[in-house]
Amino acid sequence: MSKSLNQESNPSKVYVLFYSFFLIPLMVVITGTSFFIIVKFLTLEPKSASDLLNDVKIGSASKRWQSAFELSKILANKTDSVDDILFRNQLVTAYSRSVHDDERVRMYLALAMGQTGDQFYGKTLRTGLNDENPATRLAAIKALGVLQYTPAVEDLQNIITDKNRKDVEYLTAVVSLGNMGDQSVIPDLIPLLDHEEVNIRWDTALSLAKLGDTSGLDIIADLMDRTYYSSYPEVDQEEANQAIRVAIHVSSNFRNAVFKEKLVTLAEGDENMEIRDTAIKTLKKVYGHQS
């Protein structure tokens, strides 16, 4: 009887031992670790632009490009002041030395300089136009456009008239030239309205309109028509939405009967509520149209 009782109590004893010597300590460790992580998260201060630039200079390979990426985001959001000459010179030096680094470091540093809006970086970015690496070269082209660095206009004109360039370079240069606002490039842009690549035609029309030229208005009207994108199945819905938003914005520089008609159609029944609202506001602002 006693032996039987002992056998029945063994499972219970094993469970108690497991609970006392394994489960409880494990729960204590998990609770303590969770508390530590939460406290560390709450007390962790976001890195400044200077901190991130320092990580780019002395960090590990993976940390350098990640820090360059974060730096470009901070400067895009204008959340940190980077006007002092020390920071500017260090950023230029980091970019100059990145030519043999991971391409992502140089790409994101170029974009970071462009996001500052500081013309100080224009001369340095122009050196990136000669990079052998196509990805870093594209980043320099884009950054110069964001910076609106007009001394580089001739450099970008040379790109769009060079028959040996790849389409993606034409496209990036076209967008940047539109952002720079120099109307002297209009004669070089107009032939690209007939380019075989549709994206180049679209962005050329948009850039010309930004420069006040009407040569591509028919293309912009098409871009404001949602049914137009059914001919391009490779363009997904979000890309179509973005193209329509940009076309609406550019169209507001002109009073045009076709544009007005397209805007009315979007305002009255487009599937995207944000686009409807934008169309309504543009109709009111440009045409005095009341919904």
From TrEMBL:
Transmembrane segments: 16-39
Molecular function (Gene Ontology), one example: oxidoreductase activity
InterPro entries in alphabetical order: ARM-like, ARM-type_fold, PBS_lyase_HEAT
Pfam families attached to this UniProt entry: HEAT_2 (PF13646)
UniProt keyword annotations, A-Z: Membrane, Transmembrane, Transmembrane helix
Protein name: HEAT repeat domain-containing protein
